[in-house]
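Structure record:
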Amino acid sequence: MHEPTESPAPPATPAVLISEVGPRDGLQSVSAVMSTRHKRAWIDALHASGLREIEVGSFVPARMLPQMADVAEIVRHATALPGWTVMALVPNLRGALAALEAGVHKLTVPVSASEAHSLANVRRSRIDMVAVVREIVALRDATAPGVPVEIGMSTAFGCTIQGAVPEDEVVWLAGQLVAAGVDEIGLSDTTGMANPAQVRRLFGRVRAAIGDKTGSAHLHNTRGLGLANCLAAWDAGVRTFDASLGGLGGCPYAPGASGNVVTEDLVFMFEAMGVDTGVDLARLIAARETLRAGLPGEPLYGMVPDAGVPAGFPDRRPG
């Protein structure tokens, strides 16, 4: 088993961590398959922008997601780039073993707050997934104890299959997962149903239950509330935010859900507020051209790339 490549920390720690999920969440949601060569170039461009965390793919059978067939090769490429954390999604023990063999820095496991979505997404109940997580944590402890295990709690704010997801069940499931040994739990608006009051309240409740194991906000812009929901999560103490370059992606197992938060718009919002992201916005916007080259004809979104940054934008930040 390959030991994960340790990357030196960047010179300064940003106030927020922007976690780019386009190479996984974005690519798995489009019908086209980006070539390995184009994926490498895209990842290089994202790294050059100053992003310091990236989800590069999913360790799932290629017959299910042909877009991820080269994921092990992509992990090896990404981990050779210094100063960032390379993570991959693993739905089961087999995927976790393959990801650790490839040398990932972090494992992300999808666990749905909605029973209906869990059965559609990974063909297991929520309780069964807690047992799977326990197995993954045991594998990590035995073979790569320095690799964090993160939960992305899907459909935490509502489900297009089931409907409303009771907040008490989200809090309960978070407690079960902490007991299983995970390092952090993020909340995902998989279906784009969240609103700012709900985001603020639910992150507050989860933090009250599991403390500093409360992780990232993975929010969608399906109904135009993506940035507002990110700001609500910031107000609730969240400091890690998932986003996708060009707003690429969604969830193929949540009908009608689309529209990841646009990384470019999210970076602009925080930087305009004087909140350091560590990301060079001009280089981030330039990375869109590399993405377009790999997925010609695929629509990309973003208000800031279309409108441009205001004159003197860097000077608007305090200090």
